[in-house]
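Weekly sync notes, structure subgroup
Attendees: PM, AL, DS (notes)

Item 1: joint prediction request from the bench team. They want all two components modeled as one assembly rather than separately. Inputs as received:
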Amino acid sequence: MKSAVIVFPGSNCDRDMAVALEKITGNKPQMVWHQEYDFDKVDFIALPGGFSYGDYLRCGAMSARSHVMKEVVKRANDGVPTFGVCNGFQILTETGVLPGALMRNANLHFVCKDVKMTVENSDSIFTNGYENGAEITIPVAHHDGNYFADNETLDRLEGEGQVAFKYAEDINGAQRKIAGVLNERGNVLGMMPHPERMIEPALGGSDGRVMFESVLNSLG
Amino acid sequence: MKARIHVTLKNGVLDPQGKAIEHALSNMGFGGVDEARQGKYIELDLTETDKEKARASVDEMCRKLIANTVIENYSIELE
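Output from the run, pasted for the record:
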């Protein structure tokens, strides 16, 4: 599986993502700088966590309008598996590829800890290695992870199986405790927790590894 | 021409920073503040001299970057 990690000024989980992808897929991902207009054809695109552009204006707002994102959006809409973690999730909502928005945590705290969450839809390329309803532990580290969408959108997301993960307990005020969202077609996933930081026992657990393995197995 | 843009959270969208301001004011002894909502103010210097064209262009800027219309409203004043 060939993958690419998009790097913005202020990304800080790009190397973690690259290590996880290399360990699990056996191939070093291509690191793509935000000013590129194009990059190699890959099977998987990852948007890493961080504070791209210093979170200016809104988290992910500037990155969403960068050169490289025009190409990422095009490929995501063409069906290329695309995965945004934390700031990557914020960027995907800012581009409109994923519905909703991520706002300041309701308790105003920067939340940095391992959290339990449940797998709400195990029928996607990202989650088919999990049991439906399984409780898994993945770390979060964010200030703006409070997922917001209007009720009509939330009902639709839940009804169509587009909610991939929910927090077991409210940690940031997210509507309906939503932690991760799929696009309609199921080839794009955005989530606040960091599965790339939970890929082997030495890191505290392997619950995140399953997600990368799911993609790998789905792509064959 | 100057464009003055206010970006505010839509009604019904929780504003934790506004809440913190409200609590701080109350802790400082200021009474009579029922609610505080925080927004953004952005000023643009435009080369355009036609007001209608300027409005259309700034409106597009707001929709495409300055505001996130999932959660925010915006208003534009031209001068």
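Discussion: Chain A touches chain B through 19 residues (CB under 8 Å).
Action: AL to compare against the crosslinking data before next sync.
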